Amino acid sequence: MNYFAHGMRFVDRPYFLAGTALPDLLSVVDRRVRLRMKNVVPFTQDESTIQAELASGIKQHLDDDHWFHSTQGFLEISTDLSILFRKVFADDDYARVGFLGHIVTELLLDCVLIEQNPRLIDQYYEAFQQIDPLKIEHATNKMATQKTDQLKLWLVHFYKEGFLRDYLVPQRMLVRLNQVMKRVKLQPLPEETISILKTGRRIVEKRLTDLLPPEHFLISLD
User: Fold this and answer.
1) How many CB atoms lie within 10 A of CB 143?
2) pLDDT, tens digit, for every residue of 191-204?
3) Helix runs in the chain, H state only
4) What count of other Cβ atoms lies within 10 Å of the Cβ of residue 53?
5) Average pLDDT of the residues of the chain
């Protein structure tokens, strides 16, 4: 899953919502800083409301990822997208098409959910206006494998940038995707990727309930 899919159900709980974003956000801030379930769970019952809400949101993210990446829908769709990327990189031994199939499935899932729930994306970002980034950084450092002093700045950047809205336009999604490629030190994706994003978007939309089975993921659509 990705940012919006993890957090869209919790726009009325800002610190819980922030917690659902933290595992992915920390991979951008500092890949050495990790949030492990065994370190997070004890804080879900903490006396501090912010600490407990944040820890509960992180646990929600980790739980969601566990079932999501095991669904038949995710396995099939990510494989289909990997095959499409293999056609683009047929002569490139270094192209990590499995990685692309995985991450693009998640980005397109956010895209479809935002498109189907347009009011929620505004509420999602409005929730980030209600949090104290410094308090979140302090609370996160109690649970993470390493400490960071950069998280508070990135939380502000995450809200101001509002990059999730870019997913609705394939050309802009490609720009965001190439930012990921640069961060993980892979070659940028060519313009042909746009056709894969368009095809993948239709696949994800058609198989949305296979990706998000109702027994695990319930949301009232707009």
Assistant:
1) 21
2) 999 999 999 999 99
3) 3-7, 14-29, 37-40, 49-68, 72-88, 97-116, 118-128, 133-143, 151-161, 170-183, 193-206, 208-211
4) 23
5) 93
Distance, in Å, from the CA atom of 96 to the CA atom of 102, rounded to the nearest integer, reads 10
Q: For position 221, what pLDDT does the model report?
A: 44
Tell me how far apart the alpha carbons of residues 197 and 26 are, in angstroms, rounded to a whole number. Answer: 26
- Fill in the amino acid letter for 75: L
Helix/strand/coil for 180: helix
**pTM score of the predicted model:** 0.93
**Which residue, chain included where needed, has tokens 């379930």?**
37
Measure CA of the first residue to CA of the last residue in the chain; give whole Å. 20
Split at pLDDT 50, 70, 90, the class of 93 is: low
pLDDT, average across residues 34-55 = 92
How far, CA to CA in Å, does 112 sit from each of 105, 119, 185, 204? Answer: 11, 13, 28, 7
Residues 6+ apart with CB under 8 A from 188: 178, 181, 182
Residue 94 has pLDDT above 90, yes or no: no
Domain boundaries, the chain: 3-211
